[in-house]
Amino acid sequence: MKLSILLLFFCLPLCLVAQNSGWLPGYVVTIQGDTFSGFIKKGNNILSDAKYDASHGIRFKNSRGIKIYFTPPFVRSYVRANERFITYKSKLGKDVWAVFIKQLVVGPMSLYIYYGDKKSYMYFLKKPGSNFVFVESDNAELTFNRIRIKTMLLEYFRDCPAVVKKIEDGTYRIYNLRLKDIPLMVEEYNKCMSSQP
Whole-prediction pTM value? Predict the structure, then answer.
């Protein structure tokens, strides 16, 4: 009897930690503008890809333990610990494609990322007063339609000659499928814009 009480005493804190694992403080802002504060857990289940799930749905729990599953069409943004996600919507024919995109950089040009399935991802670039521009890692256009992609990015970065020059001379490569240079381009662009009078 004493042994079972002793085991319960030592195991109970571990069970409580395991039960709460993955839940971090945060808040959700709905389409209507309501804010729910509590705890957020990414994803749908423990067997799925957490990055993918974080882009398609989150679990929310308030201080009383009431749980809600939120999906992008009903949410403006959510913050979990120090990560911020916003909802990106696009019309595809008659349907609306909505996903959560994670904010990586805030500045004169903001940078977001969306994780798709099969380890694909997309970078979303956004300047105030402009539409989102995005480049995806598994897009065949990166291989077969390089001129259009290059033209689009040259136009988007046009107000920073240093970035434009590096795109034109190949210092920033936009055609490899890993897209490693996109964050570097955004970082240099933001420094360029911050140094202008």
Answer: 0.79
Say if CB 59 and CB 3 are below 8 A apart: no
Q: Is the pLDDT of residue 6 over 60?
A: no
Answer yes or no: is pLDDT of 126 > 80: yes
Residue 52, classified by CB atoms within 10 Å of its CB into exposed (0-12), middle (13-18) or buried (19+), is buried
- Average pLDDT over every residue of 57-68: 93
Taking alpha carbons only, the member of 173, 132, 130 closest to residue 150 is 173
In the block, tokens 């136009």 appear at 155
- Which residues, in sequence order, are CB contacts of 78 under 8 Å at separation 6+? 26, 27, 28, 29, 40, 58, 70, 84, 85, 100
Q: Is the Cβ–Cβ distance between 120 and 108 less than 8 Å? A: no
CA distance 56 to 37: 20
Report how far apart, in Å, the C-alpha atoms of 142 and of each of 40, 87, 172 are.
Answer: 36, 25, 14
Residue 171 DSSP class: S
Tokens of 104: 């990586």
Residue 161, both tokens: 């000659």
Residue 67: closest CA among 55, 54, 57 = 57
> Sign (positive/negative) of CA torsion 130, 90, 86, 100?
negative
Burial pattern 145-169, b for ≥16 Cβ within 10 A else e, equals eeeebeeebeebbeebeebbebbee
Mean of per-residue pLDDT scores for the chain: 81
